[in-house]
Amino acid sequence: MFKGFRSLLAMVACATLTVLAVPAAAHTQCAPYARAVSGIALHGAAAGWWGEAEGRYERGQAPKEGAVLAFRATRSMRSGHVATVAKVMDERHVLLNHANWSRPGMIERSAMAEDISPNGDWTQVRVYYAPIHGLGLRASPAFGFIYAKGTAVAQVSRRNARA
Fold first, then answer.
1. Which residue has the higher pLDDT, 26 or 73?
2. Which of 33, 91, 126, 140 is 20 to 30 A off residue 116, Cα-Cα?
3. CA atoms of 129 and 90, how far apart (whole Å)
């Protein structure tokens, strides 16, 4: 009986070590990741970032490196989503760095995003989805971009305000 108890105890200890060995990134959500990468100090659900940014950060419809693309909440994305712009490819394509899109906790770097909105204002976006190795099939609604202090758009706005 004592030998069986020791075996059980050893199995529990190994299972506990396995659980503790799971990297913290496995639980990364999009908002804390975007905040850390962009330096934009907003908190709460991603869908609320657009409103929270009003009066604190410049916002707009043009992609800029370092900006955060803020997605609206939907039935399938109840908390919305935020992603940082790593590179602007052209006016309709950017590369995003973000977390928790293709798989819970997964961090994706240089994920393609395409503006499919009729007016070219980034209000409808398709984003690379790892399980299908291509752009997602659904259009995701977005508010637009929140610009980190120091991005080109914010610098131009401050210069124009002083003029």
1. 73
2. 33
3. 20
